[in-house]
Amino acid sequence: MRQRKSNIELLRIVLILFVIILHYMNASMGGALGHVQPGTLNYYLDHLIESLSIIAVNVFIIITGYFSYKKSSVKLSKAVNLFMVMLFWGLVLSFVSVSWLVPQTINLKAIKDIINASLFQWFVVVYIILYLLIPYLNKLIARISRKEYQLLIIVNVIIFYIIGVISKVVIADSGYGIINFVTLYLVGAYIRKYHDTRVPLKYSIFTYLLAVLITTCGSFISGRAWNYNTIFNLIGSIAFFEIFKSIPMGYNKIINKLASFTFSVYLIDANQFFTKFLYHTLFHSNHYWNSPLMIVNLVVSVIGIYAICIALDWLRVLLFGKLFNRLANLVKTEIVVKRES
């Protein structure tokens, strides 16, 4: 089996660290952006850090398009496995948190929240939908010309990344839905098919930082600047992907192994019950929202949470990994879309 180069695997690790940073900043999770005092140094730092990290989800989908654009089939067993991991961590972390780590009354609302945390992680749901669409998207990609492909992306960007942000009449999901994911997939596939050359690193870095600067300035005017479907988020996402694509790197066993935990790290860190324990009880982020040591606490929290999530999922794989694989592989069905020659 061909060993995957580690530059994009390193990118996955950086992106999941960005996601943890976003959760640290999230008003209802780590809480920083919801409680920092306006006009202070931390206020401006939080906006900058949020803008640096906001590209994470978009880049994940670009990576999917980049590596998957030639597939004519997908296995339902993979989607089932993703769902089972989501369900496992949703149930385990929610019940452990509400009954022991951050005790609370178990009532109808709590049960409903536990079900939502276990079955409806937005990223997983939308990603599974995208995964099932891959053979159909790839057939489209294979049949249209380069010029038609370019026009398709341009039309999507104008409608959903410019008009869609200005007017919510067009789309009101802020880029958290399947339209954004499909567009990003098409972008990733286009890069692989027509533009798989090394972009000078200085240009990619400059473009990414310029997009970050514009996003940061825009965030002081409107929270929409952090929508996933803004044009500057899209530009920054492509530039950030190009930065790592241009890094010459062979196979690194440690990097690739750490990157294999990315999906579960997201699920563990995103659990609404366990998050309160991680950010507030364990790393005391709520004590540092307006502290000069906020950056120190952020770094310690991100590294610590990343390590904890990997350790927990390593334990899951050790104890239940084979069982999960067996259950998923019971589903033999594949979605196959034949391409006309």
Q: Alpha-carbon distance between the termini?
A: 28 Å
The sequence of SSEs as H and E is HHHHEHHHHHHHHHHHE
Average pLDDT over all residues: 93
Topology, number of strands: 2
Instruction: Round the Cα radius of gyration to an integer and report it.
Output: 20 Å
Spatial shape = globular
What is the helical fraction, as a range of percent? over 70%
Low-confidence stretches: none
Oligomer: single chain
As a percent range, the share of strand residues is under 5%
Number of helices: 15
- Major pleated sheet: 2 strands, antiparallel
Description:
This protein has 341 residues and is mostly helical. The protein is built from 15 helices and two strands. α1 runs parallel beside α13, α5 packs antiparallel against α7 and α5 crosses α15. The radius of gyration is 20 Å and the shape is globular.
What key attributes describe this structure?
72% helix, mainly alpha, two-stranded antiparallel ribbon, 341 residues
